[in-house]
Amino acid sequence: DAMVIQNPRYQVTQFGKPVTLSCSQTLNHNVMYWYQQKSSQAPKLLFHYYDKDFNNEADTPDNFQSRRPNTSFCFLDIRSPGLGDAAMYLCATRSGQGTYEQYFGPGTRLTVT
Amino acid sequence: KQEVTQIPAALSVPEGENLVLNCSFTDSAIYNLQWFRQDPGKGLTSLLLIQSSQREQTSGRLNASLDKSSGRSTLYIAASQPGDSATYLCAVHHYGQNFVFGPGTRLSVLP
């Protein structure tokens, strides 16, 4: 009964080589989030969608882009990964009504060589 | 700007002990507060969600309380087990805004 699915679970890319991470959900939630989490730190919000409305955090680098082609899918594109972008990337969803409980996927561990 | 802190940063207890993890926030006008568990290298698993109108929520051996006026929430774990070893994070939510996470408490339960 996977609800928030992230692929791949582990991604290795070379410095400067574009990479795309994907997230899908079976919950039909309006809101989808992308977080970056580095070791022993709290998750840091990169951006989120409310339906198709895109909201970028002020300090999210331009190197990070996102696409949400439909309700179920959301993608994180890193155009030119640097060594500092190595991290766990977490996708989360919540409904636009009700309790506003967040549901997280298992994460994608990105390594940059 | 909302700030969330969690004390202690790390905790080690023997199996069977009851323990309390703390979460403090500076802006008490929250909509809800959510506690999560994170195992090493994994995503976050939701444990409990407390709405601003509630004082506590319980799930099995876990009990979370909320005191909005003092800007505090506690997560009580009864009869701890080695399988409870993980990092526990709290996140606060203001209506119409995004979640703000605390840095987490790393818990080790020793057999």
Largest sheet data of chain B: 6 strands, mixed
Number of strands of chain A: 11
* Mean residue pLDDT of chain A: 93
Q: Determine the structural class of chain B based on helices, strands and strand pairing.
A: mainly beta
Radius of gyration of chain B from the CA trace? 13 Å
Q: What value does the average pLDDT of chain B take?
A: 94
Biggest sheet details of chain A: 7 strands, mixed
Describe it for me?
- The complex is a heterodimer of chains A (113) and B (111).
- By secondary structure, chain A is mostly beta strands.
- Chain A is 0% helix and 51% strand.
- Chain A has no helices and 11 strands.
- Chain A has strands at 4-7, 10-13, 19-25, 31-37, 44-50, 53-56, 64-67, 73-78, 87-94, 103-104, 108-112.
- In chain A, the strands form 2 sheets. In chain A, strands 2, 4, 5, 6, 9, 10 and 11 form a 7-stranded mixed beta sheet that branches. In chain A, strands 1-3-8-7 form a 4-stranded antiparallel beta sheet, with no helix packed on it.
- Chain A is globular.
- The mean pLDDT of chain A is 93.
- Chain B is mainly beta and 111 residues long.
- Chain B is 0% helix and 58% strand.
- In chain B, the strands form 2 sheets. In chain B, strands 2, 4, 5, 9, 10 and 11 form a 6-stranded mixed beta sheet that branches.
- In chain B, a hairpin with a 5-residue loop joins strand 9 (86-93) and strand 10 (99-101).
- The N and C termini of chain B lie far apart (41 Å).
- At the A-B interface, strand 9 and strand 10 of A face strand 4, strand 5 and strand 9 of B.
What is the secondary structure topology, with strand pairs?
The complex is a heterodimer of chains A (113) and B (111).
Chain A: E1 4-7, E2 10-13, E3 19-25, E4 31-37, E5 44-50, E6 53-56, E7 64-67, E8 73-78, E9 87-94, E10 103-104, E11 108-112
Chain B: E1 4-7, E2 10-14, E3 19-25, E4 32-38, E5 44-51, E6 56-59, E7 62-67, E8 72-77, E9 86-93, E10 99-101, E11 105-110
Parallel strand pairs in B: 2-11
Antiparallel strand pairs in B: 1-3, 3-8, 4-5, 4-9, 6-7, 7-8, 9-10, 9-11
